[in-house]
């Protein structure tokens, strides 16, 4: 069954297992612009220096790369409990029943597997953390969106619509769809056809184009190669600069995503013309490096609980 109102209010965090943990931690703090807010036992929690969200990226030291968890936010404990009941009744595989969380900021949440075996967490009441309040430019403000590669596009799309109440915003031809939760943001999740199940990329909202370009320049000066960008997408109308982290995951600086008028929105179908993939024409062709990069390597953690 599809809920009329999604219990999901947004993305909370992405958790990645990294075989090159130290190098990855250095990349995401020194270069990417996040700050370490907590750490222990080979796990580091990273947050934005300018936003009180407890953390938006978690890195775990591991022998193999994998997507550990995708963390989504709900409005209340009651929403988490109700979601858990609906998922159980629908036969969705539950990893952890609703309970208090022991991660930074606490809160209350549950974990379950989606139809392809990705581990999803939905939580509420996570305490904010204190930040200095000082203005900083060129650092991520929050987690923007995440994109999955799938072997079963329609089934995966249907899972998130049916069980989490996400809504279809747009299509990119017939191989990629964009889903939103409650609110005006064009998408928090996109799902793309790929050669295997994998993480396509993770996008970090920079709050504005100037901040995005400052961060892009910081990475370029440090010798990091731009995979694609800077440019402006058609679907979502957001700006972009794509890089690869030390484990080969694609990560994106983005800004100015299009808003959605829920009362009047009509789903559109975008074509893969260069001028629709990059309206500015400044980022180069997507075929030059982005397509092979975003395929990533097959996810080794499907249907496997994360240790943290």
Overview of this protein structure:
- With 308 residues, this protein is α/β, with parallel strands linked by helices.
- The chain has two domains: 117 residues, 2,3-Dihydroxybiphenyl 1,2-Dioxygenase, domain 1, CATH 3.10.180.10; 154 residues, 2,3-Dihydroxybiphenyl 1,2-Dioxygenase, domain 1, CATH 3.10.180.10.
- The protein has a nine-stranded mixed beta sheet with strand order 14-15-16-13-9-12-11-10-17. It has an eight-stranded mixed beta sheet with strand order 2-3-4-1-5-8-7-6, with helices on one face.
- A hairpin with a 2-residue loop joins strand 2 and strand 3.
- The chain is globular.
> Which CATH top level class of the largest domain fits?
Alpha Beta
Average per-residue pLDDT, rounded, comes to 96
Order of helices and strands: EHEEEEHEEEEHEEEEHEEEEHH
| Sheet of most strands | 9 strands, mixed
CATH topology of the largest domain: 2,3-Dihydroxybiphenyl 1,2-Dioxygenase, domain 1
> Shape from CA axes?
globular
Radius of gyration equals 18 Å
Which sequence of strands runs across the widest sheet?
14-15-16-13-9-12-11-10-17
Total DSSP helices: 6
> Which range does the strand content fall in?
35-45%
Question: Notable features of this structure?
Answer:
308 residues; alpha/beta; 2,3-Dihydroxybiphenyl 1,2-Dioxygenase, domain 1; 2 domains; 9-stranded mixed beta sheet; 8-stranded mixed beta sheet; 17 strands
In short:
With 308 residues, this protein is an alpha/beta fold.
Write the layout of secondary structure elements.
Blueprint: E1 8-18, H1 21-31, E2 35-40, E3 43-47, E4 57-61, E5 66-74, H2 77-89, E6 94-100, E7 108-113, E8 119-124, E9 142-150, H3 153-164, E10 167-172, E11 176-180, E12 189-193, E13 198-205, H4 209-221, E14 228-232, E15 239-244, E16 250-255, E17 268-270, H5 274-277, H6 290-295
Parallel strand pairs: 1-4, 5-8, 9-12, 10-17, 13-16
Antiparallel strand pairs: 1-5, 2-3, 3-4, 6-7, 7-8, 9-13, 10-11, 11-12, 14-15, 15-16
């Amino acid at each position: 069954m599809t809920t009329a109102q999604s219990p999901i209010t947004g993305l909370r965090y992405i958790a990645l297992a990294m075989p090159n943990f130290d190098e990855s931690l250095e990349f995401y703090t020194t270069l990417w612009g996040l700050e370490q807010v907590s750490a222990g036992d080979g796990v580091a929690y990273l947050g934005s220096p300018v936003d009180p969200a407890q953390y938006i990226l978690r890195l775990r030291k591991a022998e193999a790369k994998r997507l550990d968890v995708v963390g989504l936010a709900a409005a209340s404990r009651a929403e988490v409990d109700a979601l858990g009941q609906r998922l159980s009744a629908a036969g969705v595989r539950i990893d952890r029943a609703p309970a208090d969380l022991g991660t930074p900021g606490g809160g209350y949440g549950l974990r379950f597997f989606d139809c392809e075996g990705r581990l999803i967490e939905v939580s509420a009441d996570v305490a904010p953390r204190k930040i200095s309040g000082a203005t900083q430019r060129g650092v991520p403000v929050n987690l923007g969106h995440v994109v999955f590669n799938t072997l079963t596009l329609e089934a995966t799309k249907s899972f998130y619509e049916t069980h989490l109440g996400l809504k279809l915003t747009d299509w990119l031809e017939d191989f990629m769809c964009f889903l939103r939760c409650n609110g005006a943001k064009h998408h928090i999740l996109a799902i793309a056809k790929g050669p295997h199940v994998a993480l396509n990329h993770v996008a970090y909202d920079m709050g504005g184009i100037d901040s995005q370009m400052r961060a892009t320049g910081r990475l370029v000066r440090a010798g990091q190669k731009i995979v694609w960008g800077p440019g402006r997408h058609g679907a979502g109308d957001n700006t972009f600069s794509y890089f690869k982290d030390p484990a080969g995951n694609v990560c994106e600086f983005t800004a100015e995503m299009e808003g959605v008028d829920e009362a009047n929105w009509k789903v559109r179908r975008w074509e893969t013309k260069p001028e629709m993939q990059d309206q500015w024409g400044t980022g180069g062709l997507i075929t030059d490096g982005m397509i092979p990069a975003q395929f990533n390597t097959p996810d080794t953690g499907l249907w496997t609980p994360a240790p943290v």
